[in-house]
Specification:
This protein is an alpha+beta fold. The chain is built from eight helices and 22 strands. The protein is globular and about 65 Å long.
């Protein structure tokens, strides 16, 4: 592994993780002090020479220091509804964390009295020298300017989320031409509705969603009822909620545990990495993956009785197995993930969920099939309205959508 060295205080230092080094360079600028990566949860090593021999000693991470936190921007947003955005809702949070301020608050807003809601790009956990776990809020990357908005999910309401649309300027007309902010791995940055509904740090966001009519009180109550069905530790602004086939999410293979949940009607289902990436569950005690980050989506495949597989959209970090494992990886893992292809086992696409009744996988399959049907039905109605309007304004003109079924055209010309 290539070691990244830098000098501070007359000594030479090195980072153990080159990928984190790249992250520090991108978001915090050049790393001139060994304490900078320590605050991000990265262990450093001090290299010194005594008596002609090189000594290596680990530097314990620092305790949480508020002075080391990125500068925060307090935002008085007027709406989270993308249809009602105005230029005054445009914000630039580049290199900062954000706080949404209650517009009706009197006095000094604070998190304790629910007049502030915290928004950060990411939150990293590290352990102090006393063994205590503390957190560091990561600032938003450069050129993060645009609009904070709520993305509703009509057919999976509990899978709605707060997002950030990056635009070229403050004119709201730029919104439809912008792109949603991505995480460092390439999946959409978002704060899920279930975290907004249950976190004490999101009171302002809850109020705004209700005032804008974007979320009903019943939906918030449903989130509170569903939250206990998942591990409470998993419910946070960094939790990934999959509501429909085609929702992108990232998988970090460094650990068998993760924060990816599938929103059901009456509970959350864990998308367990051991069930997806291990062909032999007996190997779970010795997790075979050393590293690897994949951006994926669930996808239907098969003709007669479609199953749901995992499409690899991109590989953010190469997949590597741990040393000392058996020579034949197929004994304990799926095939090596390939960008653009379905995850497979022995060369055959691997069904993550099928329509087998009486199983959790069968229940998830039925829910996702129903939501996909509702989504296609709504798309057909929109296309039919568009086609009627085109016929009125341009009589006698036809295109391929008039000669084949709308559902077929939708499947062939739009992404999930």
């Amino acid at each position: 592994m290539v070691q990244h060295l830098f000098e501070s205080g007359g000594r030479l230092w090195t980072l153990r993780n080159p990928r984190i080094w790249a992250t520090i360079q991108r978001y915090n600028g050049p790393c001139k002090s060994p304490w900078e990566p320590a605050r991000l949860g990265v262990r450093c090593r001090q290299l010194s020479t005594e008596g002609g021999q090189q000594r290596v000693s680990h530097i314990p991470p620092l305790k949480h220091d508020n002075r080391a936190q990125p500068r925060a921007l307090r935002m008085k947003l007027n709406t989270l509804d993308p249809r009602r955005l105005a230029s005054r809702d445009f914000v630039d949070v580049s290199g900062k964390t954000g706080f949404v301020v209650d517009r009706k608050a009197k006095g000094t807003p604070s998190l304790k009295d629910g007049t502030l809601s915290n928004i950060n790009y990411d939150r990293r956990r590290f352990r102090t020298e006393d063994g205590e776990h503390v957190f560091h809020d990561m600032p938003f990357p450069a050129n993060t300017h645009g609009y904070v908005y709520y993305r509703a999910r009509p057919h999976a309401e509990v899978a709605g989320s707060l997002r950030f649309r990056v635009t070229q300027g403050r004119d709201p007309q730029f919104f439809q031409h912008g792109e949603d902010l991505l995480t460092v791995y390439g999946s959409p940055w978002q704060i899920p509705l279930v975290a907004i509904a249950t976190s004490a740090r999101c009171v302002v966001l809850r109020k705004m969603l209700e005032e804008d009519g974007l979320v009903t009180p019943e939906a918030l109550e449903q989130c509170k009822r569903l939250a206990p069905t998942a591990d409470p530790i998993l419910i946070s602004p960094q939790t990934q909620i999959v509501g429909e086939v085609g929702d992108p999410f990232h998988v970090n293979l460094r650990s068998p545990r993760g924060r990816t949940l599938i929103a059901g009607d009456n509970s959350f289902y864990h998308l367990l990495r051991k069930d997806v990436f291990l062909s032999n569950l007996r190997m779970y005690a010795d997790w075979p993956y050393e590293s690897g980050v994949l951006v994926c989506q669930l996808e239907f495949f098969g003709d007669v009785s479609p199953s749901i597989g995992l499409r690899i959209l991109s590989i953010a970090q190469p997949v590597r197995l741990r040393t000392g494992m058996p020579e034949d990886p197929s004994m304990y893992t799926v095939d090596e993930p390939r960008e653009g292809e379905l995850l497979s086992l022995a060369g055959v696409p691997l069904p993550i969920f099928n329509n087998k009744r009486g199983t959790a996988g069968g229940a998830i399959h039925a829910i996702l099939v129903r939501r996909n049907f509702l989504r296609l039905q709504a798309s057909e109605e929109d296309l039919e309205s568009t086609r009627e309007a085109r016929r009125l304004h341009h009589p006698g003109q036809e295109d391929e959508r008039d000669s084949i079924s709308i559902a077929t055209w939708h499947n062939n010309h739009t992404s999930s």
